[in-house]
Amino acid sequence: MLSQRMQEALNAQVAMEAQSSQAYLAMGSWADIQPGLKGVTKFFFKHSDEERMHMLKLIHYINERGGFAIVPALAQPVLTFVSLKKAFEELFAHEVKVSEGINELVDIALQEKDYATHNFLQWYVNEQIEEERLARECNDKLELIGDDKSGLYLFDRDIMTMDQE
C-alpha cells in the first residue's frame, strides 16, 4: 500500500512524464516542418511515445499498489524553436528535471522504507542515466557541427542510431 505522500509524489511524476511526452511531441511537430530534419522528427516523436509509456507504467504501478493515479491536465508546451540546437538544449534541460523528480521519489521511498517502490523506481533511475547521456551526446554533436550544413545532414541521418548505442 502506498502512503499518501508517496502517491502524491508518484502522481506528480505522472504529470512530469505526460508533460515530457507533450514537449517532445511539439518538438517533433516543429522539426517536421523544418527542411531536411526527417530523422530528428522521428527521434522526437519516438521519444514522445517513450515518455507516454513511462507515464503509463507509473499509472499502473500506483493503481496496483492501492493508490489512485491521476491523469493530469497539461500545460501548452513550447511550440517553436529558434534553432535545432536550442530544441536539443531544451530537451537536455527537461531530462535533467525529470531525473531530479525521479531522485526525489527514490529519496521519499527510502525515507518511508517503501522498498517495493524503491525497487520499481530503479528502472527509472537507469532510464534517466541513458536519457541524459543521449541528450548530452546530441548537444555535444550539435555544438561541434555549428552552422555546417553537411554536419547537420549527417546528424539528422544518424540520430536514430545514436539512440541505440
TrEMBL record:
GO molecular function: ferric iron binding; ferrous iron binding; identical protein binding; oxidoreductase activity
GO biological process, any: intracellular iron ion homeostasis
Taxonomic superkingdom: Bacteria
Coiled coil regions in record: none
Enzyme Commission number(s): 1.16.3.2
Family indicated by similarity: Belongs to the ferritin family. Prokaryotic subfamily.
Protein name per its UniProtKB record: Ferritin
Organism, scientific name: Chitinophaga pinensis
